[in-house]
Structure formats: structure tokens, C-alpha cells
Amino acid sequence: MVEEKPEKYAKPLNARVVESDTEMRFELPFIDLDNLFYIGMNTTIDWKTNIHFHDHFELCYLDQGKLAYFIDKSMYQINQGELFITKPGERHYGLTDGISHFRLYYMGFKLDKMRAIEAEYYNIGVDRIVKDKDHQINRLFDQIFGEVRNKRQGSTEMVHGLFLQLMATLLRLHLDRTLPCDNRPKTLGPIIIKLMDYLHKEIRYDHNIEEIADKLHISRSHLAREFKTTTGMTIGEYIRNLCLDKAKYHLRETDKSITLIGEELNFTSINTFSIFFKHYMGMSPSEYRKHTRVK
After folding, report:
1. Which residue among 65, 109, 120, 294 is least packed, with the fewest CB closer than 10 Å?
2. Residue 23 pLDDT > 90, yes or no?
């Protein structure tokens, strides 16, 4: 089984604004701020990302919900009010539980013109989840969003100042932590990493776990036990969540027929797909599509 090669998400080349009911993202809002690449916010309940890496730092702050996030060989369970950072070159991806209300703030940046603080950021270790107890990071994100959106006189300078304050505040949250981190990561073994890579690359309902285990040269029972111990869910539950996430995305964001969506997930018939979807979502695919497109 070949491990999936992660995508490289590079610095945006052109200024762009994305605003919808579930997402707000500003890429290069001020050309004078070449250390801040983008800032965004996403409220999609079934949010997930592909396996990728950056050539820059990325800060994520979970304002609402729960999130499983994977950075290189570690898995983190992120809770409301917690934030974390990924460093340049780190392979990462994440997904929500698909149930809780969700709001994620994120920001991409470089610190190559701030060498002292850049070294401190590179020194942040594997225990990188910190709590925004006083909502300082939350407020700074909201203030930056306000300046970027309104672009009043002096907005460039305000964003620059707020960005520096956010960087210093985040660093203090890490340095001032005197107690061991309550949210320690779980180390992912090579077998679990290969399995997750495969499941994300081939999102479908009819995975044969016995065949996958055989390709990984491990017994099915051992693979199932290791996965459950590491992630807290069964392989079947993980496959189900990926299928539901993909189905909901295509029902909500595309005009693909329900039959085609079911076929792409390898359901044997539209009836089987509809029964599966309604069992877990409480409504049929057509009802979900109608509900999510009501303005």
C-alpha cells in the first residue's frame, strides 16, 4: 500500500476574499504586510482537510466545537477555547466530530523578518495545545477581521500592530505554562498513519478491513485494536464519518445527483445510500440538500 503524498499549500499569490454562510477568508488583504498571508474563519460542522503541509506557520483557534487534528505522527483532541500551531513542513490534517457547533479561526504567516521570535516558535514542542483562558486570542482575531474587512484609514498599521500582539500573546501562553499539558498528543504508529492516509484518499462505504489489514501485514483484530486505542473510535466509525462528511459536502455545495454521490461512495444503490444517510443524519439526502440550501 502506497502512502499518500501530502499536498503543499503555498503562500497565496493574489489577493482574494471568500465570504459565505460558513466561511470567511481573506488572502493577502494588505500587500504591505508580507508576513501575514491569510486569515480566515470556518463554521462548517463537517469541516475536514486533506493531508497537506505549508512552507509557513499556521495558527488555528477553536472557538466552538471539537476537533481531531493530526500533525506528523501525533494526534490531538482539540476542545473549545484551545489553540495550536503547525510549523513549516509539518504534515497535517483534521476533521470535526460532525455533530457539535463549530467555529475555527486560522491564520497563515511567516516570521523570517522577526528572527528572535521565529526561533521561539520553532522551539515549541509536541505539547503545543494551549488554552485561551482570557479570550485574548479570540479578541485579537476578531479585531483583525474588523480591520481587514472595513479597510479604514490606518487599517494596515492597525493590522500590523494586532498581528504582533497576537504573536507575542501566543508565545507567552506557551512560555507561561507552568503545569504539564492536560491535552497531550497521542503518538501515531506507522501502521495507523498508513491506514488513515488510505482511508482519506479512498473515501468509500465498502472498505474491506480484512484486505486492508492484509496489505499492511497485520491481523484485522490487531489493526482494529490499535486504531481504537489511538483514536477512540472504531475503523468503521471513522469510515462512516468520512463518508457522511463527503456526502454532506456534495449535497450542500454541488449539483451532483444523489444517485451519483452514492455511486462515488460505492453504495450498491441509491436506496442503500439513502437509508445509511437518514439513519445517521435524521433526514434523507434530498431533505438535507433542501434544508441546507434554504436562504
Report:
1. 294
2. no
